[in-house]
Amino acid sequence: MKNLFLxxxxxxxxxxxxxxxxxxxxxxxxxxSKDFYIYIKAxxxxxxxxxxxFEVPIFWADPVIAFTGCDINLIKxxxxxxxxxxxxxxxxxxxxxxxxxxxxxxxxxxxxxPYNAFASSxxxxxxxxxxxxxxxxxxxxLIAYHDGEGNVSKGKISPEGKKYARIVLKYYREYxxxxxxxxxKDRVYFFTSFEYFYPSDFEIKVGGVVSLLGEADLExxxxxxxxxxxTPFVRSxxxxxxxxxxxxxxxxxxxxxxxxxxxxxYNLEVxxxxxxxxxxxxxxxxxxxxxRGRIALFYRFGW
Length: 303
Description:
Blueprint: H1 2-14, H2 23-29, E1 36-40, E2 46-60, H3 61-67, H4 72-83, H5 103-109, H6 117-134, H7 138-147, H8 149-153, H9 159-178, E3 183-197, E4 201-212, E5 216-225, E6 230-241, E7 244-251, E8 254-263, E9 266-273, E10 276-283, E11 286-291, E12 294-302
Antiparallel strand pairs: 1-2, 1-12, 2-3, 3-4, 4-5, 5-6, 6-7, 7-8, 8-9, 9-10, 10-11, 11-12
Helix pairs in contact: 4-9, 6-7, 7-9
């Protein structure tokens, strides 16, 4: 029996996953090909969570881009090619947001949150103006935006950079001729989760999250347990920086306060609730959560 004790405990932990909280986790992890996934959770005897994601037009891009002071048609053409106006676009090389700016360039431009569609548009305009001063030719400026100013200054122009410039100039002429309006597209997702607790208790949670142009995520819904008690809940994640969010939530249980910080693939989240503190540590699909004296592991997979 002693030989079975440790494997049994480990099995219970693995099959008892808790939900990872920060919506940016779902947004970061879900690429275009993955708009549905299931959590295996711990802390209950058995639990799953399913999420379905939609990319929806949420705000006019034209007035925001026009307000930057740059050529609106050119910036729209660049954004269209970079991200398709998707607020939470992320490339394999780590370029983020509608302007697809990497973290080092974002820091140099003073862009604190690359997922903020407003700030990202202004940063793109600022960078375009800077490049125009060095390369006062639209095609060459576009190549420098793609290949890097250092390479263009040395005469190192890649075939990909030339192709990028051709596509953007094509879109540019299209916008000049048609005046087509564009919308920033952000992510909305719906989730449902079920947890079973030995011997017969259960909890069902249903809700959704809307991301507000990278500045905040708003989560809300309702949960019901086996005692026929139900409560609405709402939680907001305010993001002054890409890698820092302040959390404010409410349910019938009371107010919740906390913060969530990111570093690369690592995340740490701490929330104070009326039931006691909660914390989550997460890395690349796996995580560990502490909640009211319980410790649990979670893992997620999707399609």
